[in-house]
């Protein structure tokens, strides 16, 4: 193989360098100090070039790929795979993702080749506390207020899995409020890369020009792909705050109000099950439109109108700060801000109870959900099984409370006031596929409350 000669050359250079430094051990090397300095300088330059070749060869054998399509395989979802392929083709054609100005992390609008926004990509390395976060808010937070830095109940830099996990829970429960979200790999010049990554990319491109015999064997010449969550973009939606203020002055017709209440209850169930620690009224969306002519009433310049034929839909976005490994018990409680809305005072409808209760009442369904989340979360390099089990203990406790609240006909506000429960796997419990709460899990109450508690 061609690369063996570079390895042998490197060994020879290293031996010569050692010989020059330790000349007393090699009396046969009788050269003047001037010649020795010249030779040493030459060897150092050559050694640097050889080191560059080794870095390139290491990149070749390290298993990285230059085609993110190999990493983005969705055999069970060809529609989603086609969307990701469109995004990759657009990037290759120069239609690059655009960084979103809002928020405290690096997130990007991804477009197709026609410039239409098709998704939102949130790289793992650019999360609020990621080492490549392009926004300085969290950096100053860490420096100026380290005691309140981060959320002590969450696994750091796992937001992209939380986004994908929220969609998984939404899909399993049949809620339909989370836009499709999956873990993907993408690469773009507009992403935030370290100076080293950009220098390596430039070096490989230079090697391709100067040493094509070596560089043409590289699997990847450009920047390394980034892993993150990709959520399909939803059109025609506005922040819930806008519509909630609208509904106060111009109430919805009865049929639409009931539909909105049903959608709201699904949002509540999702947030409660995954224990979302970052749900305000500015990060869930509402779309209100008329069915008869498709007129979008969210535009400010269109006169407000209501119709019995109007439809309403909720989209639960920004689910990256969920799945805690313990209940919040330090400084902040991270409450659900929807709990103070008038819709939260209404007991769960029979429709919602019929949809969710049969599923979450079955511990085997809950166990299957945990196993699906395990398959998702274990793909992270920093995955820790014990921490994941703690996350599932919190989620099982939330599901247990939700089950009881639905059976008792409680409201969302009453649900969030229930005692916090942890359901841990019993070490002596059943290990089979048929799971029973009494012998497979143990239930404990989490009594410690945060310093600033809302309930």
Structural features, described:
Its EC number is 2.7.1.67. This is Phosphatidylinositol 4-kinase type 2. The chain crosses the membrane at residues 39-61. It is a single chain. The protein has 455 residues and is α+β, with helices and mostly antiparallel strands. The protein folds into 3 domains: 4-61, no CATH class; 68-150 and 188-194, no CATH class; 238-445. It is built from 15 helices and 10 strands. The chain has helices spanning 4-21, 33-61, 68-71, 78-92, 137-144, 159-173, 195-210, 212-215, 240-249, 254-274, 350-360, 363-377, 385-408, 412-416, 437-440; strands at residues 98-99, 108-111, 117-123, 181-186, 226-232, 238-239, 284-290, 310-316, 421-425, 441-445. A 5-stranded antiparallel β-sheet has the order 1-2-3-5-4, with helices on both faces. α1 (4-21) runs antiparallel to α2 (33-61), α10 packs antiparallel against α13 (385-408) and α12 packs antiparallel against α13 (385-408). The longest helix has 29 residues, at 33-61. The protein is globular, with a radius of gyration of 28 Å. The protein starts with a helix and ends in a 10-residue tail after the last strand. The model is unreliable at 1-9, 15-31, 55-69 and 300-308 (pLDDT under 50).
